[in-house]
């Protein structure tokens, strides 16, 4: 199982939010500083979210993210503010390993198919952000149906992987909820990366044993509640 340290970017800074609320942001320095920190600790991939993009400015932080990719050469999965084919192409063309399609995948599902055909499924990750089994979009403000049904649809459309974020526990550092993860793994053949609530090496081992392909570490990593080296060992 892969471990993806989160590098969430807001206003050019690396931050962590609680429950996705902008006003809860805690800054941790520059994205490149943090990327290097996690790579030096053993990570070989990063989960980068353009929060300014998610909050409405699709082109924000492009230079910062471009520099991060060029300076590190690491595999990056990127989400946040991808609202069109053009947005997705622009990120893939500068070297992003795969784009995470969230709201746009629900609003315009055909973008999953079209990007998969153009770039290959491995570069297209569909986001399944869910609260109590219901997909939430538009900054987690609007419900959009059953998360398992959407996962199945994204698979049929040609997505190469899924990002499952449990919004109910995201950013709280209180542990994971395994039931929806197990349900999702039972309904799709795609690799699933899990985000939300991962706070201990026990959580990492649990996800590994469930058969998850990857885990995103955010708030617990930045707060020191979990050490990256220990998480990487638990994932093996």
Automatic annotation (TrEMBL):
The active site is at residues 8, 129. GO terms for biological process: L-histidine biosynthetic process; L-tryptophan biosynthetic process. Keywords: Amino-acid biosynthesis, Cytoplasm, Histidine biosynthesis, Isomerase. Coiled coil: none annotated. GO terms for cellular component: cytoplasm. Pathway: Amino-acid biosynthesis; L-histidine biosynthesis; L-histidine from 5-phospho-alpha-D-ribose 1-diphosphate: step 4/9. It catalyses: 1-(5-phospho-beta-D-ribosyl)-5-[(5-phospho-beta-D-ribosylamino)methylideneamino]imidazole-4-carboxamide = 5-[(5-phospho-1-deoxy-D-ribulos-1-ylimino)methylamino]-1-(5-phospho-beta-D-ribosyl)imidazole-4-carboxamide. It is found in: Cytoplasm. It holds the Pfam family His_biosynth. Belongs to the HisA/HisF family. PANTHER family: 1-(5-PHOSPHORIBOSYL)-5-[(5-PHOSPHORIBOSYLAMINO)METHYLIDENEAMINO] IMIDAZOLE-4-CARBOXAMIDE ISOMERASE (PTHR43090:SF7). This is 1-(5-phosphoribosyl)-5-[(5-phosphoribosylamino)methylideneamino] imidazole-4-carboxamide isomerase. It comes from Methanofollis fontis. The gene is hisA.
């Amino acid at each position: 199982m892969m471990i993806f340290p989160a590098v969430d970017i807001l206003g050019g800074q690396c931050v962590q939010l609680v429950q996705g609320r902008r006003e809860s942001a805690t800054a941790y320095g520059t994205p490149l500083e943090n990327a290097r920190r996690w790579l030096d600790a053993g990570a070989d991939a990063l989960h980068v979210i353009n929060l300014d993009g998610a909050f409405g400015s699709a082109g924000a932080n492009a230079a910062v993210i471009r520099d991060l990719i060029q300076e590190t050469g690491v595999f990056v999965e990127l989400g946040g503010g991808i609202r069109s084919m053009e947005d997705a192409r622009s990120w893939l063309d500068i070297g992003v390993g795969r784009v995470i399609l969230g709201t746009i995948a629900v609003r315009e599902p055909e973008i999953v198919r079209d990007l998969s055909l153009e770039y290959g499924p491995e570069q297209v990750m569909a986001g399944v952000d869910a609260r109590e089994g219901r997909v939430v979009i538009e900054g987690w403000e609007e419900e959009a149906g059953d998360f398992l049904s959407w996962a199945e649809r994204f698979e049929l459309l040609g997505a190469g992987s899924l990002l499952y974020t449990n919004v109910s526990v995201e950013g709280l550092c209180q542990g994971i909820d395994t039931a929806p993860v197990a349900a999702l793994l039972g309904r799709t053949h795609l690799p699933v990366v899990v985000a939300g609530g991962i706070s201990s090496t026990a959580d990492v081992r649990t996800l590994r044993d469930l058969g998850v392909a990857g885990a995103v570490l955010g708030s617990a990593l930045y707060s020191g509640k979990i050490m990256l080296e220990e998480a990487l060992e638990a994932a093996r």
